[in-house]
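Example (one chain per record):
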Amino acid sequence: MVNIQINFHRAASKFLNFGRMAYRRKNRLSVDAYVSGVLAGDRMVLSRAVTLVESTLVADQALAEEVLAKLLPHTGHSLRIGITGVPGVGKSTFIESFGSFVTSLGKKLAVLAIDPTSQRSRGSIMGDKTRMEKLAHDPLAYIRPSPSGDALGGVTHKTRETMLLCEAAGFEVIFIETVGVGQSETAVHGMVDFFLLLMLAGAGDELQGIKKGIMEMADAIAITKADGENKDAAKRARREYQNALHLFPLASSGWSPKVLTCSALDEEGLDDIWELLLEYQQKMKESGYFGHRRKEQNRHWMHEAIRYMLMRDFYTADSVSGRLAGVEAVVERNEMPAMMAAKSLLAAYHEGQS
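Predicted structure:
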């Protein structure tokens, strides 16, 4: 009777595993199908390719690498723009209005919005297509919300790959929106050509203080909500921030950041921001800095990928995961120095690898 039960469980397990594998195969395209679909600008295939690169399954990751390798020669032709700002600055409203302005020029726009991840469900909270309903229905725009997960600073480690897929699909301008909590800006700055910081007029020192360390990275500052009774305050803020920027050392690019005002609601000042972006792109290409920075970023991405994979392999290794909770408890009780605990776990990891 026991043998019958064991055999039944084994058969059931094999059947379930076969079903899962069949389901995954059914929902995966071939490498060539992904590549041809993305290059043809097929939105459905593009979305499936993005889902593929976001997958944590080993088989999917291997497939994604093949797809990206074949698409790589078709990437790099977009203008990559990072957009961040303090909470309440109106990022979504700005991105929708500015994005609509960009598509009105006939440009294909992709918006990669980093969504804060729910710590309970692990899914996206904000729902970017809901926040940007008008832009979501624009035939020249493509919005892809990505849950930030456990990636450092709220920037999913797959955002870079998603950006490459969008470039291969023919998108000429790419927005990467951060969660705007003062942690993810450095990561986004390391993957874009132009970094736009959105600020408020008269928001208070405490709120603005979040961004003091970010101002040095900004290629431009846009004072939002410059409409109605707030127009004069926005103009004063523009002068103040422009004066403050003169206190920072000149960037290695030689570019002097500008401060502009805009109103997403009244759609004012958006053309000035676009003209500034084009001016920056032209000057940086003429000086050679544009290409130089792209090369630096590619090298940086490689090292970031190494760090990510090493950390993932470390924490998922049997030699570590089985004893991690116990070592953490010892450190929490102050019975072992954190450095010693880390070394013991690393020793166990290396022993398990040998």
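Caption: The longest strand covers residues 79-85.
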